[in-house]
Amino acid sequence: MLFKDQVDFVTQHIKKNKLRVFMTILAATMGCAFLIVLASVGFGLQESLRNEILSNETVTKIQVYGDTTQLTDDQIQEIKKIEHVETVLETMNVNAAAHSFFEDRDTHSNVTLTDMQDFEQVNGKLAEGVYPTKPNEIIVGYHFAQTLLNEEDRNVMAEKSKKAEAEGTYYDGREEGYKESLIGQKIDLSLATHDDPNNETEKMAYTIVGIMEKPSYDWMIDSSIHMDKAQKAVLAQSLALPENELFYSEFNIFADTLENVKPILETLKDKGYSVYSVTEQLEQMNVFFLVLKIGLIFVGTIAVLIASIGIFNTMTMAVTERTREIGVLKAIGASPKLIKRLFLMESTFIGILGTLIAVIISYAISITANLALPLILKAATGEDVFATNDITFSLIPWQLVVIAAAISIGVAMISGYRPARKATKIDVIQALRQEL
After folding, report:
1. Straight-line distance from the first to the last Cα atom of the chain, in angstroms, rounded to the nearest whole number
2. Which of 119, 136, 404, 415 is least surrounded by CB atoms within 10 angstroms?
3. Are 86 and 62 a contacting pair, CB within 8 Å?
């Protein structure tokens, strides 16, 4: 019996019982779609949390903490010799408040010192301008100009803040501040210790040559000042404080690629350094979501198994209705293997068609859910930030489609196996005696 004839045998029965087969395919579709959509929530939540973690972190950064926080020059050189280490960046935070003056405006901010060549290497592109090449050149945060306020701006902000507070919201002052470019502009900077904030040092002149990139989170206001570590002695002298009291350092190690972070982490830990990377957090999160996704797929599989009852009933009725045809096939020499294959083809067809439709429906539901969720959250909370956030509630990777298809089609074939096996055991004489 040619393959074409086998297909004709299957399609004839399907056409003859369109409604029954349609309802069976619908059940298979619903079961498979439920499996995909349910599991896609696990994939979507994992992707959202992963993006949230990585959005404000440098994935190649390894933080030094604990007793090994302060590294010596020999230790820095030792770490730099480790394979795939790009650089060791020391960031010196100034234990004092900075007061900046520009025209009739002023602002308060934090100051950090670092090696600008290393900083450029790991920080990359700026929003505007270039990195400092001279001692009196600085880089400022993305919102530094916004925080430069005069008396008029402060009065307007106070009114807007009061109005927003009455409405139960918050005003961040983004409409005020200096609106022109600060590149090439000179500012005066004075420092004051936290113990004596009113006692400021004499003003020091600096030129702004670069603007940092916008922070990942909309709620973050970056008005910081970054200058070269060559200014360390100048700042310490202005406050008449020892350098070890005025500055505290943070050391971060940067790998050349994400793939090399873990080997570097293991090497550093073996050498006795206390280090941490966001990749460790991602690994823990991946283990949690792996268990969650397996659980969701298991629950979704139950829906597919329920749908398999319909396939089993449909195939059992097909065998009963076609008893005479099976007897004829056997009489003309059809093997049990061929007869079993004919009925397995029909159950497989139901599984494949149901899976294809389920995949299309699942993608439609996933896209709709991702588009609707921010709008629903905005309507529920009244916050506009949800409308612009890239929230992934449902994600359907190709691996999920393959797993769901394998489960759905596999269950359909198993459901049709017993009726197909029953068909091979039909007695030829009894089958031919059956009336049409």
Report:
1. 23
2. 136
3. no
pTM for the whole thing? Answer: 0.65
Average pLDDT score, the chain = 84
Q: What is the pLDDT of residues 315-334, one digit of tens each?
A: 787 777 767 776 777 777 77
The pLDDT, as a whole number, for residue 102 is: 94
Q: Which residue has the tokens 């399907």?
A: 14
Supply the pLDDT for residue 383: 59
Structure confidence by residue, pLDDT tens digits, 144-157: 999 999 999 999 88
d(CA 109, CA 129): 20
R_g over Cα of the chain? 35
Query: Which whole-number Å values give the CA distances from 371 to 223, 248, 363, 365, in the listed order?
Result: 34, 46, 12, 10
What HEC string does 12-28 produce? HHHHHCHHHHHHHHHHH
Length of the chain: 436
- Alpha-carbon separation of residue 202 from 21, 185, 235 (angstroms): 87, 19, 11
For residue 431, the model assigns a pLDDT of 59
Vertex 399, ends 394 and 404: CA angle to 5°?
A: 80
Decide if pLDDT at 381 tops 90: no
Structure tokens at 345: 């083809």
The C-alpha atoms of residue 354 and residue 181 are separated, in whole angstroms, by: 60
